[in-house]
Amino acid sequence: MYQQQKKGTAIGTNGSKSKRNLMKSVQNIQKEAESKTLKTKKGNAQDNISKSFFEGINANCPKGLGSIFNHLNFRVMSTLRNQVQLIGNVGQEPTLTTLESGKKVVRFSLATNEFYKNAKGEKTQDTQWHNIVAWGKTAELIENYAPKGKELALTGKLKSRSYTDTAGLKRYVTEVEASEIVLLGSKSE
Fold first, then answer.
1. Where are the domains of the chain?
2. This prediction's pTM
3. For residue range 46-104, what is the model confidence (pLDDT) as tens digits?
4. d(Cα 108, Cα 131) in Å, to the nearest integer?
């Protein structure tokens, strides 16, 4: 059934060398075209990367495994949706409150600074103030180790709430709910 050709080019499951080389060049052309498409495609670069990555996994994985990776992609992207990272200095002395339920909450302000040159070429500082709330062990750490002026880094999420003040007016507040903190600066601070 098999025809024999010159030594080293037997026809079989792999085909001839010229067919293999042709297939490699076709694959290279496809890869090049895909990379050009990703470069010219408008949109979020992270989305383009994750889409091409997961499309490749779906094509090469056994049935069902690709959907697991898509689920992981969704989980990773959903954790990035409402995430705040700040580095700044504690603006006011943190106030710790223990609620009736026994939970501890600390509230304080954090100042973040941005430096830039204005139109005249002068170095200018822009300070933004953020209201921070932390619960549980994080609240205790902040109360004990983060006095006014202490530099710290935090990760959290934005929370909006409303309340009625003593004058009967409804007020709206947006705060950063801190989930992790890192104390920065020297120990002498």
1. 17-80, 84-183
2. 0.56
3. 454 455 555 555 555 555 555 555 656 656 666 668 889 999 999 989 999 999 999 99
4. 6
CB atoms within 10 A of CB 16: 14
> Within 10 Å of residue 1's Cβ, how many Cβ atoms?
2
The 3-state DSSP class for residue 103 equals: coil
CATH class entry, domain 84-183:
mainly beta
Instruction: Check residue 167 and report its DSSP letter.
Output: T
pLDDT value at residue 81: 80
Q: Which two tokens stand for residue 147?
A: 């006095």
| Burial profile 75-110: b = 16 or more Cβ within 10 angstroms, e = fewer | eeeeeeeeebebebbbbeebeeeeeeeeebbbbbeb
Q: Which position has the higher pLDDT, 45 or 177?
A: 177
The token duo for 170 is 């409804």
Residue with token string 């080389």: 21
